[in-house]
Amino acid sequence: MNGKTVMACIDAACAALRENMDEIALLDQQIGDGDHIFNLLRGMEALRSLRAEIEAAAPGAALELAAAKVLSTVGGSSGPLFYSLLSGMAKAVPAQAADVAGFVRIYAAGVDAVGLRGKTGVGSKTMMDVLIPVARRGEELAAAGASARAVLEELPRVAEQGMLATRDMVATKGRASFLGERSRGHLDPGARSSQLMIKAVCEWLARPADGKE
Ligand code: ADP
Ligand code: MG
Fold first, then answer.
1. Range 55-61, long-range pairs (CB < 8 A, 24+ positions)
2. Which of 21, 23, 77, 195 gets mutated to test ligand 1 (max ligand atoms within 8 A of its CB)?
3. Does the pLDDT at position 74 exceed 90?
4. For a substitution probing ligand 1, which of 23, 26, 78, 116 has the most ligand atoms within 8 Å of its CB?
5. What is the distance of C-alpha 79 from the center of its chain?
6. pLDDT one-digit tens code per residue, 176-193
7. Is residue 194 lining ligand 1, measured as CB closer than 6 Å?
8. Which domain holds residue 100?
9. pLDDT for 27-69, tens place per residue?
10. Domain tally for the chain?
11. Distance, CA 144 to ligand 2 centroid (Å)?
12. CATH number for position 12
């Protein structure tokens, strides 16, 4: 992993958000204020304007640069939450090996930081319903010695299950919680955007090295 890998993951996540922009906008119109996808795309554009710096940096520094940019450009609740994810990951980089177990631990440290910031776990109809199951399953697979390929194939499925599970939940955190029972029956926009980004990043990482630009 290096700064170029970090930037390539950002590009993959950005493309997935763009492709699904209308759907995510609609989800946040249904149970939020409609700004979620625009908050995220603004952040993605800002990250792409930092391409040279991110690509030239070591992985921890690249994630730290990205985190600071996200904090200053992504609004809403999700700005500080994604800042926490990236900066939590950045802080964990030096302690971890550059293998799949190390990568999973770095991601899980980021998810822990989001939990501290947003003060919630699974079941409150937020992005945490995707982020946490992916972290826990990733840790289990890594502990069982699973290959990188197996981990990258399974985690997008875990993310999708977590995202779909938000449909039947009543929101107890964030703006959607103001709707109470009326939030039931809709997917959470943050869960959908997180799931799409996780899928895109896993797919990019799983591509053979010679298939990457
Ligand atoms: P806002 O709700 O302030 O308009 P966004 O639209 O950018 O912010 O983000 C909304 C998303 O943020 C929700 O769909 C949900 O997934 C996530 N979210 C809200 N509150 C929390 C929280 N406390 N912890 C984790 N995620 C949260
Ligand atoms: Mg919103």
1. 55/3, 55/4, 55/6, 55/7, 56/3, 57/3, 57/6, 58/2, 58/3, 59/1, 59/2, 59/3, 59/5, 59/6, 59/93, 60/90, 60/91, 60/93, 60/94, 61/3, 61/90
2. 77
3. yes
4. 78
5. 12
6. 999 999 999 999 999 999
7. no
8. 3-211
9. 999 999 999 999 999 999 999 999 999 999 999 999 999 999 9
10. 1
11. 38
12. 1.25.40.340
| Nearest ligand atom owner, CA of 29 | 2
What would the mean pLDDT of 97-122 be, rounded to a whole number?
Answer: 96
Tokens representing 8 are 């390539």
**Which pTM was predicted?**
0.97
- Predicted confidence at residue 211, as pLDDT, reads 65
Token pair for residue 66?
A: 């990205």
Region 64-78 average pLDDT: 95
Q: Whose CA is nearest to atom 27 of ligand 1?
A: 126
